[in-house]
Amino acid sequence: MNADPQYFTNPVKIDEMSYREAIELTFFGAKVIHPKTIKPLYNSKIPLHVRSFLDPSASGTIIGPEQDKEYVNPIPVFVMKIKQVLITLSQPDFSFMDEESLAWVFEIFYTLNMKINLIQLSALNLSVSIDVPEHGVLELIETLAEQFEVKYNDGLSLITIRHYTDKAIEKEISHRRVYVEQRTRRIARFLVKHEWK
Fold first, then answer.
1. Are residues 89 and 45 in the same domain?
2. How confident is the model at residue 67, as a pLDDT?
3. Are 161 and 8 in contact (CB under 8 A)?
4. Cβ(152)–Cβ(86) below 8 Å
5. Same domain for 86 and 163?
6. What is the domain-level CATH number for residue 188?
7. Do residues 128 and 49 share a domain?
8. pTM score, two decimals?
9. What span, in angstroms and rounded, lies between the C-alpha atoms of 105 and 98?
10. Is the distance from CB of 33 to CB of 22 less than 8 angstroms?
11. For labeling, which of 65, 114, 173, 191 is most exposed (least CB within 10 Å)?
């Protein structure tokens, strides 16, 4: 499906998808398959047939080699990652967020085994979004506070729209409070206040 029906209305089944597309979507949080499943299949050129456990006889999705048609008017694909924390670091003396500062910050995340889902950098601030861990957020914040002013927001969700359109963004984002927004050629990402059902 192009979206998880738990979070999005009217999802559409995708009949064919490339290995590359599947890896991108699983990296952003799509949960049907694990990202590391795709690489050995790609290496051996083995197609993956994904089907429903609820209705195994229904046609599913074939994940295989790149298709030229894939990027001709592709449908938007939506991925939701809930339980996100936005942590914003600022230099207390108004100095720049330079390479030395960034290296120290990323070493802390690596040491505490916390995966960063989104990064936003400006001259004076670094903002990162992470999954809410079962343990360790306070330790992380206390450690980061040794060198930075730290602010954080919890209760957030990260919405990724691959092959986004203005209409798709309007539908999913216009009614939400956005904390961080990023766009590239094919991907738009929004860190938003989560609306629990």
1. no
2. 61
3. no
4. yes
5. yes
6. 3.30.2130.10
7. no
8. 0.87
9. 11
10. yes
11. 65
Contacts of 175 (CB under 8 A, 6+ apart): none
Residues 149 and 162 occupy one common structural domain: yes
Per-block mean pLDDT, blocks of 10 residues, the chain (197 long): 90 90 87 83 90 86 73 82 95 88 94 93 94 84 94 95 96 94 96 77
b/e per residue 96-123 (b: at least 16 CB within 10 A): ebeeebeeebeeebeeeebeebbebeee
Q: CB of 127 within 8 A of CB of 151?
A: no
Domain count, the chain: 2
Q: Are strands 61-64 and 16-18 parallel, antiparallel or unpaired?
A: parallel
- The Cα-based distances of 50 to 31, 43, 47 in angstroms read 12, 18, 10
Neighbours of 148 (CB within 10 A): 21
- Amino acid at residue number 169: I
Measured CA angle at 162 (ends 13, 176), to 5 deg? 100
Q: Is residue 80 part of a domain?
A: yes
